[in-house]
Write a structure and sequence with these properties.
Strand order of the largest sheet: 1-2-3-5-4
Shape: globular
Number of helices: 6
Order of helices and strands: EEEHEEEHHHHHEE
Largest sheet: 5 strands, antiparallel
Radius of gyration: 17 Å
Number of strands: 8
Structural class: alpha+beta
Helix content: 25-40%
Length: 193
């Protein structure tokens, strides 16, 4: 298995396998360690939300996500387009490689956008919208790039979509970049009814 799997990662509700030389990752639900059950179909929920986002014109900000299979125990396995990096890795990884071309490109893009493109009033409005809809602190760089690439109306539609679909866990490890465009990589939310 180690010949194929680059690494495994795990969040609160899902596990992820990243494969060498593969454009997709494999996701599946974690077992609740207290009960031994699968509490929610979080991996499947992401695939359903991706499909819904595409229909609503918001698919560009979510990586392609599809149900691969559900096993006999009811565990859903999905495949999701692999992103370049999450915001947390870009901003906070100690000893981040300074020669990483993707980080350098993002640095240049952010400097350009802050200098030229997005106006202060538009940004203030975007941050106010984030505060209204998100339960997490604002990630300034990420929000700026959403507005830059997709526009203010898209951002407002995205925040409405997130609120309506309980996508309420947009912290630095759940947002990131693909081809230097902002992306939401974990969008099943938490405490879903």
């Amino acid at each position: 298995l180690s010949r194929f799997v680059e690494t495994f990662a795990s969040g609160a509700s899902k596990r992820v396998a990243l494969f060498y030389d593969c454009d997709y990752v494999l996701k599946w639900d974690r077992v609740n360690e207290e009960t031994g059950d699968y509490d929610f179909d979080e991996a499947g929920e992401e695939a359903r939300l991706y499909s819904k986002a595409v229909k609503c014109g918001l698919g560009e900000i979510f990586p392609e996500t599809f149900i691969l299979m559900t096993n006999t125990n009811g565990v859903c396995f999905t495949i999701q387009k692999r992103i370049d990096f999450c915001y947390n890795d870009y901003k906070y990884t100690e000893n981040k490689p300074t020669n990483n071309e993707k980080y350098k490109l993002l640095d240049c893009l952010l400097k350009k956008v802050f200098k030229e493109k997005v106006g202060k009033e538009e940004l203030d409005n975007a941050f106010d919208i984030w505060d209204k809809y998100s339960e997490r602190s604002v990630c300034t760089d990420w929000v700026v790039l959403v507005v830059y690439f997709f526009g203010m109306q898209f951002f407002l539609n995205l925040m409405n979509f997130c609120k309506e679909n309980a996508i309420n866990d947009l912290h630095y490890s759940n947002i990131g970049f693909l081809n230097n465009k902002p992306i939401i990589l974990d969008f099943c939310g938490y405490h879903r009814d």
